[in-house]
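quick one, 442 residues, struct below
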Amino acid sequence: MTAPVSSAPTTIPAPGVKTGVEYKYFLDCVHCGLCTSACPTYVELGTEMDGPRGRIHLMKAMTDGRIGMTPEAVNHLELCLDCRACETACPSGVQYGRLIEPFRVALEKHKVKAQGRNWFHRWILFPLFPYAGRMRLALWPARIAQKLGLDRFFLETLGIGKLLPPVLRQMTKMLPPLGPSLPALPERLPPKGPKRATVALLTGCVADAVFRATHWATARVLQENGCEVLVPRGQDCCGAIHYHAGEEGPAIERAIRNAQAIDADAVDAVIVNVAGCGAMLKDYHHLPIPAEHRERVTKFASKVRDISEFLAKLGPIKPTGPIPRRVAYHDACHLAHAQQIRVQPRELLALIPGLEVVPIADAELCCGAAGTYNLTQPEMAEKLAARKSNAVAEVNVDGLVTPNAGCMLHIGRKLREDGRKVWLAHPVELLDLSYRGLPPPG
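---
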């Protein structure tokens, strides 16, 4: 068993763990258990404390002071992917995200106080991942090695990969073919034809460093649909990297900076093409934002739209270029469950001539990426990735389409390891190819 990067904090005894959780959210759960079959960790392990109902019981017991913050209890909570599939399944409307996310902030505060930050968070995750520029610089050696065909030679033939810590070894495996380096999007792109909307496009951090081509495709698709596209230079990481690791302060700072970078009154929508980022941006109003910034941040959050959500409401112009390929669609958790967006991406793909979209088993079950979960909980993440890879293999497709950068990295790594020749794409990339009349991947 590979040990996770994070370890449980020293036991905090009862009475009561002080958290930012509103107690009413605990009381919404009637413990019916209908959520368990939707929970990836419960499906894999079948243990009550590794399902939503059990975790809510643990969090409430800690809050009430009936149990302490024991390592065993904390491990059950840390194994949660925060995929929020339980919210979709719950007939009582339990807002599980309102429970687990602030509770994890409290857990992290206790853990850091007891043990300090681990090396991965201190030296790699926080100082590197949220900064697109730093990420691009860090990826240059990999880009050159891939271009010269030396990446696999160094990592596998010479065995250098085996010398790396497990978390770094996992990172190198997830890195996709990077392709040519693209310039940054200009600050403004004009609409094609009559102007129908003005939008701001958020480019994020890791997504901009690894998947900048998807941002260009998004901008072109928006232009094709009559949108003036603004790309504010003052924008920042959405804050999910810090918040989901229990660091609330930096997430709040980034929420304020993003709201200051974009005048929400001047745009019809703030567009995002990464499901995890979109869920975080839309939830800004749930953060304890200082009073002097709350109105602006709340207004900003109210304008955030996933690209598929926005186009479906705008009324997309039908693309005409054929893409005669058979693809599967994987529901990213933070689009399907956190944002309740499932139909719109499929409707957009259905517009593309010649494209056949086929269902896969457990399409809404998390792939195990979950932000940095695949780095901190590699064993469970691997089980879920294998389930997804097998589901893709069963339907014999040319490609897998998914609207989240993390899913593409994680599933892509597993497909490559399993020898499955399946290309991955964001839905907007296929729309872009169809609009431009270009051939499909592969």
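The mean pLDDT is 88.
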